[in-house]
Amino acid sequence: MKHIQEMLQTHPRSIGVDERRLAETIAALYECAQTCTTCADACLGEEMVESLVRCIRLNLDCAAICETTGALLSRRTEPDWSLIGAQLTACAHACKVCGDECRRHAEMHEHCRICAEACRHCEQFCNELLQSIPAHAAA
Amino acid sequence: MKHIQEMLQTHPRSIGVDERRLAETIAALYECAQTCTTCADACLGEEMVESLVRCIRLNLDCAAICETTGALLSRRTEPDWSLIGAQLTACAHACKVCGDECRRHAEMHEHCRICAEACRHCEQFCNELLQSIPAHAAA
Amino acid sequence: MKHIQEMLQTHPRSIGVDERRLAETIAALYECAQTCTTCADACLGEEMVESLVRCIRLNLDCAAICETTGALLSRRTEPDWSLIGAQLTACAHACKVCGDECRRHAEMHEHCRICAEACRHCEQFCNELLQSIPAHAAA
Amino acid sequence: MKHIQEMLQTHPRSIGVDERRLAETIAALYECAQTCTTCADACLGEEMVESLVRCIRLNLDCAAICETTGALLSRRTEPDWSLIGAQLTACAHACKVCGDECRRHAEMHEHCRICAEACRHCEQFCNELLQSIPAHAAA
Question: According to DSSP H, which parts of chain D are helical?
Fold first, then answer.
């Protein structure tokens, strides 16, 4: 987090978005990507893997989407806000769908409980950033 | 393309989407990801790189989004169509924005002309698939 | 493939590598990434998923490594050949390990048979390119 | 970091690697991926972008390699240690090459100084983990 904010502060270009909020959202996105990657793998390693097939699939989708969205937000040069808005919308939706599925297994599998939290956390940051981006143009 | 269709045909799960159209869309997405990656790098290698800064940035965004969308469509097990719809919407938008920017440099740089075509091609496939997916629920 | 070669030919920078061979390797890498992504998902969709856990894991690793290696080779501006050599070495190894595992399931699952072929194909291209890159410095 | 360690601790499979060290390495990899992504973009946004072309290229390579390596280490089910070793070797090399280039611009650009540190930090963690993985088989 400290690193992310320092990098944004030393970036030559300025954009109309609160730097602290942006840094927190980027951190939440990379954390969610990592957590979903491990949750998919932990589910795959469980004895009852058949009951976790949908969870694994959504974890993989959510991890890829969070990574891509995190990369977009890590750039400040010549942003296209309508594009960033569309990707943030897809990402918030991925975090919701994946988080809901993880929550269904939360009592059985602690890794699903932690992952559901990471997804909810990330979903909230994406939605809040969506409200604050210039022009605020979702697709 | 042949490989993609064979893999879909031997997949144990069936989904309500035309297999040929799906395979063509996946091929367009991976091709667009590769083309945008090379176009960003070709722009970076030009003498007049300053005039191509926005093009490079959008190429990088579009490449990441196409790769992620291509991975989502490559999966058929337990798809969440509302999520796939939201990501396809973001991807079509990325291809539009990036293709428009590349077109502005098409007379000057042949790699931008080819990349603009790849983006337009991919945008069309994404939009057509959006019309045909079950429930057709964009975010 | 046609697109890849056109993009390389219109790139402003020249490197000391045969363009056709390079384009074929890039095509093999993106194809292998896509095939492994679908094979992981097809295995996940099988009734006997427990017997395919190792195959799924290696498919996911191989897909990520091929995508990254494909992106590296898609760039021609200021290449660091020792770095490209090290990544190609890791990629050839990933294709070998993943292909060997897929082959074990080839009689049972047609998608594993096709994926094993894609891996072997990609491994060969990586190894051949490794022999021809300037300085040829693996890590 | 806390999240990463919790996810590893609740994973059903055990591997012969110190959990804390593994979690620190994963954190360093995702941080380095994010930092390199922002450094490439910050360089692209500088007025003297021509002098930073090599830095941008290596930042993009290093970001992709760190992300892939981070995903591999985030999985504990059925690991292939020779493959992980080969990818860690490539990643340590990418961090070295990219960090060296960033350091050359560190006095001029603060974002390059921070990025050089993130690369060095990540390189050290990769090299240390390489010494401790079972069989310790680099490619």
Answer: 2-9, 19-45, 53-73, 81-104, 110-132
